[in-house]
Amino acid sequence: MVSRRDLTRWPGLGAAFALLLLLVPEALLHTDGFFYRYRAVFATGRAMDKLRHIEAIVPTLLIVGNSRVDNGFDPGAIADRLGAENHGRMFNFGLPGSDTRTLFGLLTRLDRKGLLGPSRIEAVVIGLDEGYLQPADALGYEVFFADRATMLEKGEYRDLARSLVRLWGYSDNLKELREPAKLERFIQASRDSVEPIGGGAAQFAGYRAGFGALQDAAQIGPAPKTLLILPASTTSTAVSIFSALAACVWQSCIRLSSIAMCSISPRKMPRPRPISTSQVSCVPGGCPSLV
Prior knowledge:
The protein has 16 helices and five strands. It is globular. By secondary structure, it is mainly α. Helices cover 52% and strands 7% of the residues. It has a three-stranded parallel β-sheet with strand order 2-1-3, sandwiched between helices. The chain has a two-stranded antiparallel sheet with strand order 4-5. The protein folds into two domains: 16-210, no CATH class; 236-290, no CATH class. The longest helix is centred in the C-terminal third of the chain and has 33 residues, at 232-264.
């Protein structure tokens, strides 16, 4: 057993141990495999799932953009219209919450690997809207995918430092693990291979259907069970009960506020006058009022 005297001989031992603990997750954040593993947890992981699929399959046509592209362009449906020979040649590379800096960084990575050009990715279709042109990165894509040489050239030194020290740059997104549902998915993905909501990149060529008209049977099924329509008589009774409860709550708030004001200066504030229920009336379509 190490004595306290032995520890005092190495005053920097604690700091070195803490630094080692930080270096382990920092090293993991610099690997593609880490976020691919947690593609069902983080948006950056789903982006890595798409990127690795593109690098492995190399489609002929790439459709890039934000969530409007991600939920709006089905490569399978497009191939059906253009001909069966186009199946597998198109891929949806839409990333929700991404912007042009993320797009440039991703295309630069593909170009450096020699994946852009004849007999490779021959065409890139960019879905543009106002949001895509705004510099916003709430999901942390730029920490991993933005081009560092471009950030250095444009003097974006803070963003460059965030991409180098990823535990700092991605800290806001890692804090989401405090949510029970997200932490549960994280633990599940640590044990098993879990695909993102809507399927992995290979399942629908990067496309993820949105909600509404594109809901599947599993999403639509629970809806009728949770829908409750009250008859008119029950609705009017509920409104009456709610109005009575609102009057009671309003009366209690007035009494509490009067007591609080008296407690601040009991000598200067008058004693609050009790309010009876007859002095409270309900205004149709609004809150109760004093009469």
